[in-house]
TrEMBL record:
PANTHER family: PROTEIN PHOSPHATASE 1 REGULATORY SUBUNIT 7, PROTEIN PHOSPHATASE 1 REGULATORY SUBUNIT SDS22-RELATED
Gene3D superfamilies the UniProt entry points to: Ribonuclease Inhibitor
Main location: nucleus
Name of the featured protein: Protein phosphatase 1 regulator subunit 7
Lineage, top ranks: Eukaryota, Metazoa, Ecdysozoa, Nematoda, Chromadorea
């Protein structure tokens, strides 16, 4: 039977008439006019579900989808992370461009590797240290004021905090697997804060431009001196690294 169905950009307002498609593994309903997640409960084999750019206000109707590994709900009207406790196999969760204020209700999602929440209304990093396999955390374009709550995120590789309200670089020195630290366009004042990143052996790509401290003419040379392990600063290769080897 059919395993993939693409209904992208079809002016659909309601999810219905899918019950017979019991072998479906991928369903794309992006760029429609859907307001409610419903009509999916018979799709027990569904692994990937896309609802980008609809009018969805609530995460619901997913409790039967226990095989789901990939959920994309970006660019909707969602205000709260909720009703995902049955989706234990979820590995990648994309909730960008919604109206979410809190990182919450992720307990038990032990398979989650990628959590993406750009362009929401999040002010604090919370409840992510309960995600033992989290590798990538994307929080650009929020209102985050402090790097905190990552105490147990030992596997974290990518931390994206571009376009937030950070004043200090803190709370990351224990993240020994971190390869990417992105904090461009924040309110970072103190160059010495960069030493928080100095002992991260795998750190490769760092973004710190568009901060108060990056206005200094010696900014680039200072950061590279403090972080000899990195290959790229603000999208430009550091001397001696011409390509990512």
């Amino acid at each position: 039977g059919l395993t993939e169905l693409d209904l992208y950009d079809n002016q659909i307002t309601k999810v219905e008439n899918l019950d017979a498609l019991v072998n479906l593994e991928t369903l794309d309903l992006s760029f429609n006019r859907i307001t409610t997640i419903e009509g999916l409960s018979s799709l027990k084999k569904l692994k990937m579900l896309f609802f980008v750019h609809n009018k969805i206000e609530k995460i619901e109707g997913l409790s039967e989808l226990t095989e789901l590994t990939y959920l994309e709900l970006g660019d909707n009207r969602i205000k709260k992370i909720e009703n995902l406790s049955a989706n234990k196999k979820i590995q990648r969760l994309f909730l960008g461009a919604n109206q979410i204020r809190e990182i919450e209700n992720l307990d038990g999602l032990d398979s989650l590797e990628v959590l993406s929440l750009p362009a929401n209304a999040i002010q604090a990093i919370k409840n992510v240290d309960r995600l033992p396999n989290l590798r990538e955390l994307y929080l650009p374009q929020n209102g985050v004021r402090e790097i905190e709550g990552l105490e147990r995120c030992d596997k974290l590789e990518i931390l994206d905090l571009n376009y937030n309200l950070l004043k200090r670089i803190t709370g990351v020195r224990h993240l020994k697997n971190l390869t990417d630290f992105w904090a461009k366009s924040n309110q970072l004042q103190m160059m010495e804060d960069v030493t928080e990143l100095a002992d991260l052996p795998r750190l490769t790509l760092v973004y710190l431009e568009m901060n108060p401290f990056s206005d200094s003419p010696t900014y680039r040379s200072k950061v590279i001196r403090m972080l000899p392990q990195i290959k790229k600063l603000d999208a430009e290769y550091c001397r001696g690294f011409t390509s990512l080897q």
